[in-house]
Amino acid sequence: MHLHSVRIRNFRRLKDVYLTLEDDISILVGANNSGKTSVAHALHAFAACSKDAFTVHDFNAECWDQLDALANAGPPPPPACPTISIDLWLEVAEADLARVVTLLPSLRWTGTLVGLRIEFGPKDLNETLSRYRELHAAAAANARTVEGRLQYHPWPKSMREYLRERLTAEFELRYFVLDRARCDADLNPQPNYSPLPLLSDAEGRGGAHVVKSLLCVDCLNAQRHLSDGDSSARAEDLSKCLSRYYKRLKQREPHFEALGALADSEAHLNAHLEQVFASTLTKLGSVGYPGLDNPQLLIRSALNPATLLGAPDGARVHYVLGQTNGNAEPKTLPDRYNGLGFKNLIYIVVELLDLHTKWLETEEDRPPLHLVFIEEPEAHMHAQLQQAFIRKVLELLSIPGDDTAHYRSQVVVTTHSPHVLYERGFTPVRYFRRQPEQGTSVLNLSAFYSLTTEPDRDFLEKYMKLTHCDLFFADAAILVEGNVERLLMPLMIEKHAPRLQSSYITILEIGGAFGHRFKSLIDFLGLTTLIVTDIDSVLPRAEPADAGTPDDDEDASTGKACMTNVTGAITSNQTLVQWLPQRRAIADLLSATADECTQPRVGNSASHVRVVYQTATAVTWRGSTMMLAGRTMEEAFAFENLAWCQDPVHSALSLRIPRNDSLSLDELTRRIHTRVRSSSFNKTDFALGLLSEDQNAWTTPAYIIAGLEWLQNAVSSPPPQPATQPETALVTPPATPPAVAAAEPVTT
Q1: Which of 528, 537, 564, 713 is buried most deeply by CB count within 10 Å?
Q2: Residue 435 domain-assigned?
Q3: Helices and strands per DSSP (H, E), number in the chain
Q4: Is the pLDDT of residue 496 over 70?
Q5: Sign of torsion, CA 521 524 525 530?
Q6: According to the 3-state scheme, what is the secondary structure of 198-242?
């Protein structure tokens, strides 16, 4: 048995999120504030069957107006009240049917999935509304206004404010059986389907008992409060962590040798304490203590292995320097002297073992599933340590003996580390994508395998592993042609799209020949993406390509490289041919509009993509001007900064042509084209040389500026404008509901 999937509704950003889980380890990735931690919190709260775990702020933001609108609802029946719910779907083997018989929807049930819904909703909405309206009416009567503006309103001002204080008193947890036959392929119940309610625990072995008998959820939060200092109110050192684990191990099997050693030490220490405190006890007697009926003072030690391990001045965790070589007293340092990375690793391992042992030692009604959330295990760890941990974590949670067939541990890891993804690949990845208005959708990367071709899939997976790609953590992506664009892009963003610096933009070097292979992944992720590539003009081949290696001026798949103004030239860039704008002739590419180079967003789930490449601009030299597009970024830069590049001061860029003052504009641009295409031109040296120049002295190629401005408008809101605050009038809902038809719930 394992937890197959969950569907969470109305919990924080998770308006309606369906998440499938692997039977061993699942990895949740996505940008910050995309809802990954909320999944752990929701599962932990519902699995604990504790209504006290919820607050009114746990409701999705779209529910807030709906809650407030209930106050103005008409006579009974009131509109539906928003609820927070979770659907748990279990993959059940035949041997485990006895454990889930309560959850079988009917005797006709067949299959492997059984479902359970837990819902946090009002006990009696009418009574809740009645109590709120009574309190609100009294509060409104004591509200104060000044010149028609509300100055003070006692609690409760709104239904949401009322529930902030009374939520746990007014709401309860309810449990239902779900029927797989009444759900669609994504396990979303059909319209008008009413699940069968389970008994309450007050009526017998109810829903809470069923949940706790099937599932145990533990969380290792990202804030583990490890500290390098000697003391901290929030810090927990490894000694305390190990102390807890020692207590659990001692309960399993008493450590008689340790206890015997402590007993001997205790006798010697008691004699020592009696001697040391003798004078103190004598002085106490001189002031009348103890009196006739007062007990005598006796100072004795209380030695305990676990206490010693965690005591500030007792036994401590130390780190040995070098090899012990059999030395009984090797050189050591206290635990605070070790790095945070290793402390974090040791802490996680010990906590995992402690939680795992606690679950295994449950003697009565041990749940068959142990779900462990680990948030950001990569904190403070270097790349190799991250990979080693994620590779070995399941071995830490191994289940001994025959229990393996009946009990299972599942691990869910939330991470921002591409190194963790490197180790596990696409299959276990669940991508959390932020939606407008505080929403989130979740994509199962294992489904990506069925949506793309094997060559593209293999290429992407290898690329991700080789580059440690952080595409899954970005707000948007910029796919660039080569190393030059990758090096210069941050500077160009600073110059022309500074608002992008407030967003997380990943820059990937993909090349024009392979850029189109990213289309399926970008479309699947629905990621806003700018592609900065080269137009790569070539002459079409008159004959099939030879088997030999092409020379410096020749493209292997088409023909010789040429300038963009050559009649009949085509592009060798497959991104432009197969993705956007899907044109081959250079003339057609140069005439393509911005709309034709843009893949628009369709709905909330589709990607938004723009491709930019070299365009014709006015190139001027010695009084002559012509419209010309560069073939590559380096050519475009040279053409649009022609006089500056030909200045001897900037010879280090390798774009200056000797004796250029005697050359015509046409001849100069042709020689620059030849220079950039030659094997002697080092593009990386060009980029590094440009970084050393005054950034205000040169101009970014126009096509890159256009692309960055588009991306900035697509992902970054403009600076807020000052606005006049409207006056707020006192609006008081009636204490008694009006005699009108019930309104529909408000939705946003």
Answers
A1: 537
A2: yes
A3: 23, 25
A4: yes
A5: positive
A6: CCCHHHCCCHHHHHHHHEEEEEECCCCCCCCCCCCCCCCCHHHHH
Residue 328 confidence (pLDDT) above 80 = no
555 vs 631: CA distance, rounded Å: 13
φ and ψ of 620, to 5 deg: -120, 135
Structural tokens at position 413: 């890891």
Phi/psi of residue 197, nearest 5 degrees? -75, 145
Please indicate, yes or no, if residue 233 is contained in any of the structural domains. Answer: no
CA distance 520 to 509: 17
What pTM does this model have? 0.80
CA torsion, ordered 452, 458, 464, 465, to nearest 10 deg: 150
Return the half-sphere exposure (C-beta side, CA atoms, 13 A cut-off) of residue 443. 24
Quick check: is 404 in a domain? yes
Domain count, the chain: 4
pLDDT of residue 726: 44
**Does residue 360 contact residue 372 with C-beta atoms inside 8 Å?**
no
pLDDT of residue 316: 54
Whether 234 shows a pLDDT value over 50: the answer reads no
Same domain for 207 and 104, yes or no, is yes
**335 within domain boundaries:** no
β-bridge pairing 369-375 and 408-414: parallel
Digit-coded pLDDT (tens) for 2-36: 999 999 999 999 999 999 999 999 999 998 889 99
Determine the Cα–Cα distance for residues 378 and 29; give it in Å rounded to an integer. Answer: 13
User: 528 and 481: one domain?
Assistant: yes
> At residue 206, does pLDDT exceed 80?
yes
Indicate the range of 286-300, 450-464, 679-693 predicted with least confidence: 286-300
597 backbone dihedrals φ, ψ, rounded to 5°: -100, 15
Where is 587: in which H helix or E strand?
Answer: helix 586-591
Tell me the per-residue pLDDT of 566-578, one tens digit each, with 9 for 90 and over.
999 999 999 999 9
- Those residues with Cβ within 8 angstroms of residue 734's Cβ, 6 or more apart along the chain or in another chain: 72
What's the confidence (pLDDT) of residue 144? 86
> If we measure between CA atoms, which residue out of 359, 273, 257, 268 comes closest to residue 305?
257
Report pLDDT for 742: 34
Instruction: Answer yes or no: are the C-beta atoms of 598 and 609 closer than 8 Å.
Output: yes
